[in-house]
Batch of 3 targets.
Target 1
Amino acid sequence: MSYKVDVQPSGQVFEVAEDQTLLEAALAEGMMLRHSCREGTCGTCKGKVLAGQVDHADSDLEVLTQAERDEGFALFCRAKACSDLQIHAPEVTELKGISIQKTAARVGSIDRISDDVAIVRLNLPPTMPFNYFPGQYAEVILKDGSRRSYSMATVPGESNQLEWHIRNTGGTFSRFVYDDLKEKTLLRLEGPFGTFYLRDTDKPMVFVASGTGFAPIKALLEQLAAQNNTRPVSMYWGGRQLKDLYMHQWVVDFAKNHDWLTYTPVLSEVADGDIWDGATGYVHHQVLSDFSDLSGYEVYACGNPLMVDSARKDFTEQRGLDEENFFADAFV
Ligand code: FES
């Protein structure tokens, strides 16, 4: 049994099977609705059901409250159709030239660039070009079927190689990567996913990253450079100590070569022995202190969920940022 979903205001239509979520069905038909985690935890895919019935399945009441359900909202990455539907999704991106695929990838190199971050480069089969929007992520599928998500840190290229920045959080997979992963190891991947990609406007932009949230921001910077960008970009990268900004010098050099970029590194716990006369504190507080008005801006934020949530709240409530212009990927 399948149902029709009419997406407003674009008028696009897709079919959803009874056992598919609305997001899965849209992606399968090459239509990308706004999303990030695909697990019902970040709230990015929340939208209104204008007509018809949905089953909220295992949507968490913390992410989709009872009041929101009563008003007709749903998490499109969890909800399943119980009838034909009309939904409101203001942004629908066509996946032109991009297909979500499952593929094998072989570890090409591992660069343990700091005491807890490894840069892993993966080689994909040359016969299966893996195209994506810079800023998107892919998932590694582990033996037990569980998945981990990592953003691509470069633009897609002819070499069909992906670059991931993996921090050893102490979890089984990230610890294995940091301590034991070897070149030539075969991994299973699925992707690309996520709507953390550059919007084609002329608005100035603020990039905010914490820790390895820098990875997709690096891909965006490379994309802008390749496009001979002229939009001003103010980039902030926060870590506890200088060693957490594991490609700090790369960004310093990149900013020297691209006059549209200003770079502000921010440390929250300057270590004894660090010579640091730069910004200190929380990274999004530095943005608040540098900008009195963000109403004409786009903000792209990636990093820990606390930083991303605080940035979204403070930038919209205190600096007039339009929530529609806040784009985020939170590691969840
Ligand atoms: Fe649906 Fe995160 S809650 S994409």
Note: The chain has a mean pLDDT of 95.
Target 2
Amino acid sequence: MRLGLIGYPLSHTLSPAMHTAALRTLGLGGSYVALETPGETLAQRVEEVRREYRGVNVTVPHKEAVMPYLDSLSPEARSIGAVNTIVNHAGRLEGHNTDAPGFLKGLEEAGIEYRGAKVLILGAGGAARAIAWALKQAGAQVRVANRTLQRAAQLQREFGLGEVTDDEWVLAGMARSSDLIVNTTTVGLKDPASTPLRAEWFPEKGTVVDIVYDPLETRLLREARAAGLKTLDGLPMLVWQGALAFELWTGVRPPIGVMYQAAQETLGA
Ligand code: SKM
């Protein structure tokens, strides 16, 4: 079974380690490899996948660009407007999005309540789309703060979200009144000194999630923990979106603990 990941660049991905460990543990054989794909070679790469692969994940910057090359889309991928998993049914390529349910699985595993929660999402890029859609579908009240208002307003219109803002003071009020705050920006990625939200603006109780996983504890999470809030790092979403993709390709539920361990070992290496 040939599996892989399409994106560019792919030097820091944990997916090959996670999926290889799952394939080995289950004795399925096969492989999962990083397929670095610069934009101008995307069409060619999709045809290679059609001929030779059971399925692939898709990551930045191709999650939207890959859609026109596929034969069908799951309802979730169509609504979110992004594909992170392709399943090859004998030459027919089907696009899915496992980022959205993967995010919710991570919350559930950690015992974080989100149905009916008052949520603030920081950022309005690709990851924010999947997360906003998933939380809204699950009945949360979703608000978005983003540096450019236009992108946040676009999400608001498409998914029927609550308030959106690009204003720091409005953001402060939104943060203070949230049960759940989710950082989807890259602020904090490989930078232990920067944070997307001032600690003075934290709510008195609730949860802060950062989908960044390098470092596992960002400044945002460190400060949230110090303020007595519950925290969740970016690994659960990554592992669960991978596990759901694995199940789509193989029909087998992968060993989650093995995938977590492989991802953690690769991060620590
Ligand atoms: O959606 C996922 C993708 O399936 C794999 C990935 C990675 O390996 O870095 C990141 C996310 O975009």
Note: The longest helix spans residues 235-250.
Target 3
Amino acid sequence: MFGLIGHLTNLEHAQSIADELGYPEYAEQGLDFWCMAPPQIVDEIKVRSITGQVIEGRYVESCFLPEMLSQNRFKAATRKVVNAMAHAQKYDIDITALGGFTSIIFENFNLDQIRDIRNVSLDFSRFTTGNTHTAYVITRQIELVAPKLGIDLERASILVCGATGDIGSGVCRWLAHRFPQVDLILVARNQQRLQEFQQELGTGRVLPLATGLPLADVIVWVASMPKGMEINPVELKHPCLIIDGGYPKNLGTQIQHPGVRVLNGGIVEHSLDIDWKIMKLLNYDVPKRQLFACFAEAMLLEFEGWHTNFSWGRNQISLEKMAQIGAASVKHGFRPLLT
Ligand code: NDP
């Protein structure tokens, strides 16, 4: 049995679908109430691989909302994550993905120090961030879509916003290995971490976001931002491929410009319909088949019987593990979203 721990995009979104999640009484409630709400299993899932294997899973709604971070409700945010993990473990789920912000909160607030949640002693080997599969999918999206736009990856400038993050560092390692000539532009806020990462990578240049954006043929957004930001497409190169892997999205508004192509980053499409409702509630175009790559990682670990924290800790994503999870992804019928 696999598990998915997730959260909704914002308070407004949470209120609008509370009824469909099975708790209509939450629809009228504000952030204070959501800060108190316990985790709940709101979806039972069945997934069939193209090999014919069938697995079952559960979606645990953590009731975390990104506003808890932007409004400094850190205690509530951390409680949401550990309570959801304890809930998954109580239901005997073998391997559970910590989706979106839940893994970021786990890392940022050192939640590995908290083992005991009421009568549950957390066993971290039952959880994965899913970030190795996400990094793999983003690299495939770059490799498959950029050439179609006429971007030559051997000589392109690629900006990674969130380069020092878990997913960002994995993507940068892969780019540096696969395209040694690439002009890699590393962006984040903490300059010391950027310099250290640049040294570890042995390539790339550190630039402020505003300086780097007009230089980039490909822009990968994997920054942990509770709210998306605005960028002016006119100031970008044309053609420009933008891969927005943030959840919530790093871009605040939809970009419509003939020279700029925006892809939903870190999203996969399964070859067969998945029996669930959660992606419909998250407003995905093809909710029976499209899903976050981190969720798909838990499914892959379950298909393969790898009941282990495959992606764990920060900045540990290796090229070998990306290749390993990538091969499992192809084997079971997942494809990176390319449109
Ligand atoms: P991490 O916390 O490990 O890394 C976040 C990175 O973003 C760091 O480099 C951080 O550096 C940088 N950052 C944060 N805020 C800003 C900002 N305002 N401007 C520039 N850089 C910023 O996060 P993850 O790698 O785990 O996740 C990254 C994103 O991917 C998140 O939005 C997450 O929700 C999403 N995600 C998507 C998945 C999918 O399946 N599609 C799966 C898992 C996560 P610094 O603090 O120095 O700025």
Note: The chain has twelve helices and 16 strands.
